[in-house]
Each structure stands twice: as C-alpha cells, then as structure tokens.
Q: What sequence folds into this?
C-alpha cells in the first residue's frame, strides 16, 4: 500500500507500507541515488514472515516530492521523524543502507532514537564517506567531486558508471538496467546536493557515540563505495554493536547475498544472533 505523508509545507514523502498489521515494524532508508525499491528482495520476503515493512523514498528521490533544497542530514533525518510521528510508530527497527545509513545515524543522535528500538546499518556511509586528515579510510574527495560534476553534464553516464561498482556478484543486463532506472527517478539537483553533503558532513563521528540501542552492522568486504574500514569504525564508535562481514558482497550486499542478509536481519530482530 503506497501513500504520502507531509514532511513540511509543499513537501510530501512517499511510503510503501506492506503488511500494516505485522507484529514488528521495519523502516527502510535507501541509499543514494535510488528509492525504497532498492530493498525489493527484502520487501518481497519479510512481510511473509509477519513483519510490517515500510519503505521511504527520501525527498528528491523515487516518488517523493523533489524540492530544490533540504538535502543535508539534519533535514533528511527530520523527515524520518515526520514519518515516525505521522504513522505513530513505536519500537521500530530502523534499517539504513549507504547514505540511508548515515541519515539513520544522524536520526539516532539528533532525535534521541525516538520510536526506534533497534538499528541496522548496511554498507553505511558513516562516519565519513571520503578520506579526511584524521580518517584515511574513505574514498578520495576528488571522486565525489567528479560525481557532482558528471551529474550536471551527463547524469546517465555517471549513474551507469556508479552502478558498475555497486555489486560484487555478477548481475544480468536487465537487472543492471533496472538499477540504472532507479537512479534516473531522482532529480538531478537532489542527486548532486546529497553528494555535496558527503563532502561537508563531519559530525557523524560524534553521532555514533550517541547511539544506545542494539545495533547490527552488515558490510560487504568488497565494497568499493563505502569501504569496509567504515564498518570497523562504526563498530568501534557504537557501544555494544555487532559487525557481520559479508565475504561475497560489494556495496549491494542486500542483493549480492540476499539470503544471508535477510537471515541476519531476522535473527537480529528476534534476538537470536547474539
């Protein structure tokens, strides 16, 4: 069931809400530059196990409204708060992939984990997607600057190149085309603005320490976008977190090893993977 909620005047966010009567609620935050459809292979399987699964299209992406501004982590995490309050959600498992993981980290610190009882970070872009003088584990700043430049000159080419680095397992051409089209659904200005946020944002280091709920970290060791040392830094920064490496995955671990991903997710929700 799909519908919209209002985040602020003239900005509505699209939600896909599957199995609303489910016993436990999972809220999915997708990575850049896609939509909730990124989690198709979770949204197919998990409602069948009795879970309520809510996929949010972040502003600027998917079916959500595409204002020209509002793409910093503060505003994007405030949008998550709007969803949780509008739906009166409690004891949610918040699941964030890539940039969605960074937004989830900011949400936990900025909103004091309101409505969230468990956190899952998968290939999360935290605490910093790029290398910094005090954090040498990200990708080069110039790589992000090139993404921004190419967004304004040949966005389809940029998206195709990005997709070529996303998965570790081999994918079919039709699947590659499907993934490519998810990026095309976004606005160009949102695509570039979120990439600029990767360059500016430095507060996630502190945010990690503010997370107090049980946290599961899932990360592909072959990730070429959010390198595996980011997961190690998350594990060190978040008290009582658990890191599970995915040995046969890249950035798209929810598809590269979808059965393992779903299994680990369910075990964490049910408290059986301690």
A:
């Amino acid at each position: 069931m799909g519908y919209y909620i209002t985040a602020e005047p003239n900005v509505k966010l699209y939600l896909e809400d599957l199995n609303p009567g489910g016993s436990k609620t999972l809220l999915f935050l997708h990575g850049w530059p896609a939509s909730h459809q990124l989690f198709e292979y979770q949204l197919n399987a998990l409602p069948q196990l009795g879970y309520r699964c809510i996929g949010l299209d972040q502003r600027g992406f998917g079916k959500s409204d595409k204002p020209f501004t509002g793409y910093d982590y503060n505003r994007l995490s405030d949008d998550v708060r709007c969803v949780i309050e509008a739906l009166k959600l409690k004891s949610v498992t918040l699941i964030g992939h890539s940039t969605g993981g960074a937004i989830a980290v900011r949400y936990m610190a900025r909103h004091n984990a309101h409505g969230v009882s468990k956190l899952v970070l998968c290939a999360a872009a935290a605490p910093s997607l790029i290398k910094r003088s005090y954090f040498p584990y990200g990708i080069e700043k110039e790589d992000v600057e090139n993404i921004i430049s190419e967004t304004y000159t040949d966005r389809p080419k940029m998206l195709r190149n990005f997709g070529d680095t996303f998965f570790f397992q081999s994918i079919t051409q039709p699947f590659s085309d499907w993934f490519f089209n998810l990026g095309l659904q976004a606005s160009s200005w949102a695509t570039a603005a979120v990439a600029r946020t990767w360059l500016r944002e430095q507060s996630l280091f502190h945010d990690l320490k503010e997370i107090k709920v049980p946290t599961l970290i899932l990360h592909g060791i072959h990730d070429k976008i959010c390198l595996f040392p980011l997961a190690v830094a998350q594990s060190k920064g978040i008290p009582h977190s658990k890191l599970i490496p995915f040995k046969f995955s890249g950035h798209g671990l929810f598809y590269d090893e979808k059965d393992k991903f779903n299994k680990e997710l369910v075990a964490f929700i049910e408290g059986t993977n301690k």
Q: What stands out?
A: The mean pLDDT is 97.
